[in-house]
Amino acid sequence: WWATAMSAPATSELEGRKTANVCIVGAGYTGLTTGIELARKGVSVVILEAREAGFGGSGRNAGHSTPTFTYFSLPELRKILGEPWAERLIHRQSRANDSVSGMIERYQIQCEWQQNGYVQAAHRPGAIAALQKKAEDYNAIGARTRFIDKQEVEDLTGSPRFYGGWFHTEGGHLNPLGYSRGLARAMMQEGGAIYTGSPATNITRQDGKWLVQTPRGEVLAEKVIFATGAYTVQGWPGLERSFKIMKVFVAATQPLLPETRRGVMPSNTTMNDGRGDFFVYKYDTAGRIVASMFPMGARGRDIAYTKQLMTDRLKWLHPQIREEIRWEYFWFGELDMQRRTVPRLYGLAPGVVGLTGLSGRGVPTGSMLGGILSEWALDVPERDLALKVEPLRDAPFYMSFAPQMNLRYYRVKDNILTKRDGAPLPPHA
């Protein structure tokens, strides 16, 4: 993304003292959309960023924008979160791409935005019923989705390997760093200030306000929002312990030949092959396949092996690919994982909150959170917010290893069920 995104807006390091109604720490999707929402309402906002806008997960994710919940079904979320929090969050998340497309259109952000839908495939006959139920559940809350049969999956994706699928017509994809930089420009356009190379090193109470210090400056603000996600290092004691890191890797091929593109992903959707050990991919504007997976064993450690595995999976899914696949870009990102896999909003002190735990739901979730955090800053009562304000707590120790263990469990279970159904397994399964 650094090779292809629009240039970053001109910013500088904070020097001296600034005053603001709200100081936001972190210039990722969450911090930037919060700042934009507040600045549009006439609130003075300063954003502090340790590196540059979109440096963390907001600039290095795979660019998928699917307004769903990955790890839990909607009925499960209602049990986990309880009401009214569940329905509020479900509504915000399911309409999150409205926030994304609205920001892109309003500020004319050049970020390769395509909204051609998302396909989650049924890779074995036994997976069909769950996807039909998923379509029913999401349609009941107003999403525009449908179950599609084997032929329509092949028409949309070019892959003959599937037995059906769930098609979410509102899914999209983009250049995530370009989107981040566009949001930064929008923030400045609305009158907000962004200071890069300015990590928050300390925060203290002063004259009834909060003084946020950086290496060469400070911001005196009435309210402070920490929105640093998986890249939280300092600023508020203990906030970095509220989640556990999980690695993910992303790779991009060379631009594929036009004849290949006519048969592979011809509708330019985002594709999830539906396996427990999933493989998610889509095109960028140049015609590169951009794909993501989780590290497991040698995968992710041995880069040559990992690239071969990804090539084999891609060509197995799309046997019509005849050209050599070269993974010209390969990088890692970090996810701030929570047990419930939904964001957590922590009340750190009067007038100070922190938000972590996006758990890999970057583009849509980070974008919709700006609405929630701006409402908090505008004194919407906590009982009326879409996220419950909680006391800060450390993530459970088992979160250090449980996500990886779950991935291995899903992989083994999925392989067993696939064999039971008489369906073929991909290479390296």
Describe the protein's architecture and organization.
The protein has 429 residues and is α/β, with parallel strands linked by helices. Helices cover 32% and strands 24% of the residues. It is built from twelve helices and 19 strands. The strands form three sheets. Strands 1, 2, 8, 9, 10, 11, 17, 18 and 19 form a nine-stranded mixed β-sheet that branches. Helix 1 crosses helix 11 (362-377) and helix 3 (74-81) packs across helix 4. The radius of gyration is 21 Å and the shape is globular. The mean pLDDT is 96.
Question: What does the secondary structure layout of this molecule look like, with pairings?
Answer:
Elements: E1 16-25, H1 29-40, E2 45-48, H2 57-60, E3 64-65, H3 74-81, H4 85-94, H5 96-107, E4 118-121, H6 128-140, E5 145-149, H7 150-157, E6 164-168, E7 172-173, H8 176-189, E8 193-195, E9 202-206, E10 209-213, E11 217-226, E12 244-253, H9 258-263, E13 270-272, E14 280-283, E15 289-293, H10 303-317, E16 327-337, E17 344-349, E18 352-356, H11 362-377, E19 389-391, H12 402-420
Parallel strand pairs: 1-2, 1-11, 2-8, 4-13, 11-18, 17-19
Antiparallel strand pairs: 3-7, 4-6, 5-6, 9-10, 10-11, 12-15, 12-16, 13-14, 14-15, 17-18
- Please tally the helical runs, counting DSSP H or I stretches of 4 or more residues: 12
Helical content stands at: 25-40%
Structural class, by secondary structure, is alpha/beta
Average pLDDT score: 96
The low-pLDDT segments are none
* Amount of beta strand: 15-25%
The number of E-state strands comes to 19
Q: Characterize the largest beta sheet: strand count, sense, and whether it forms a barrel.
A: 9 strands, mixed
The rounded Rg comes to: 21 Å
Shape assignment: globular
N-C termini distance: 29 Å
